[in-house]
């Protein structure tokens, strides 16, 4: 194991030691970690799940040096399977092209495996740098939590979207009727809230039409939000801070950058996302 990781208890845990040792050479060049990590092993398991979402977010890790992590998460529509497919660490923010490029590469990989038609939607926040994702031709949905914060108290827009994202179950026989009711509610909203909500509902209707062309099983949008990624960001910030403290203050700034990139790469490989207590 690399010297900078030798005394980190987190990576000496018995359930991680073998996996870390196996993947460490694949994470990056030991002396010059770039912070870029592809994690496509296991993605073929999504092929027969009835469709999946690709969501992206930028996570911020404030210590031991401020770092920005671009993450792409793949989750089956029902949430049974979840996997981080890509992460990249930078010490500065990401622009639109830097977000667009890895998504293009991942979609190309999925199409090569015959899985392109199973992508239900791309999910991100409403930051302008994510606008280029619409070019791929898939529905582009905004993350529910960002929409709730933006629309809170504006008519009942946040309640309507919370219902569609979180509580509604759509089936082949009733989804058009349910959608018509939701559309009627949307038309009662104030102008700006109506515009934002209608844009989201347009993308969600595309998802429903595509889904019921290939499956007659009931469908929910509950997994089409970035709650999980935001939770991962908070968890990783604490983990990186804790194990950074264990290394002491011996590292200079360059070494801190290498350290964060290496740890995020390992976390990408070892993060367990599929826990479901029910």
Topology:
Layout: H1 9-12, H2 14-27, E1 36-38, E2 52-61, E3 67-76, E4 82-90, H3 96-112, E5 119-124, E6 140-142, H4 144-151, H5 157-167, H6 175-187, H7 191-214, H8 227-246, H9 253-270
Parallel strand pairs: 2-5, 5-6
Antiparallel strand pairs: 1-4, 2-3, 3-4
Helix pairs in contact: 2-9, 4-5, 6-7
Helicity range of the residues?
40-55%
Share of residues in strands: 5-15%
Shape: globular
Q: Count of DSSP helices?
A: 9
What does the largest sheet look like?
A: 6 strands, mixed
Which regions have little confidence, pLDDT < 50, spanning 5+ residues? 1-18, 23-27
Total of domains: 2
Alpha carbon gap, first and last residue: 38 Å
Along the chain, the helix and strand elements come as HHEEEEHEEHHHHHH
Give the neighbour order of strands across the main sheet: 1-4-3-2-5-6
Q: Whole-number average pLDDT?
A: 80
Radius of gyration: 20 Å
Count of DSSP strands? 6
Structural class: alpha/beta
Structure keywords:
6 strands; alpha/beta; 278 residues; 9 helices; single chain; globular; 2 domains; 6-stranded mixed beta sheet; disordered N terminus
């Amino acid at each position: 194991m690399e010297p900078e990781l030798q005394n980190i208890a987190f990576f000496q845990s018995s359930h991680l030691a073998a996996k870390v040792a196996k993947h460490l050479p694949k994470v990056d060049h030991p002396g010059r970690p770039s912070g870029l990590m592809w994690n496509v092993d296991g993605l073929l398991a999504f092929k027969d799940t009835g469709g999946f979402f690709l969501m992206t977010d930028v996570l911020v890790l404030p210590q031991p040096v401020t770092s920005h992590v671009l993450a792409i998460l793949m989750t089956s529509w029902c949430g049974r399977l979840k996997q981080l497919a890509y992460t990249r660490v930078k010490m500065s923010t990401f622009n639109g092209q830097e977000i667009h490029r890895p998504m293009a590469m991942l979609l190309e990989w999925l199409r090569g495996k015959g899985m392109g038609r199973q992508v239900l939607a791309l999910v991100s926040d409403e930051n302008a740098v994510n606008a280029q994702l619409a070019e791929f031709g898939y529905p582009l949905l905004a993350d529910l939590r960002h929409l709730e914060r933006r629309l809170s108290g504006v008519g009942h827009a946040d309640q309507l979207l919370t219902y569609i994202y979180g509580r509604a179950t759509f089936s082949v026989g009733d989804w058009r009727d349910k959608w018509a009711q939701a559309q009627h509610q949307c038309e009662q909203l104030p102008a700006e809230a109506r515009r934002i909500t209608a844009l989201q509902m347009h993308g969600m209707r595309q998802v429903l039409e595509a889904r019921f062309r290939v499956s007659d099983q009931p469908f929910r949008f509950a997994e089409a939000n970035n709650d999980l990624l935001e939770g991962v960001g908070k968890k990783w910030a604490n983990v990186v801070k804790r194990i950074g403290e264990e290394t002491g203050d011996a590292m200079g700034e360059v070494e801190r950058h290498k350290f964060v990139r290496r740890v995020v790469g390992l976390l990408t490989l070892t993060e367990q996302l599929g826990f479901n207590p029910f």
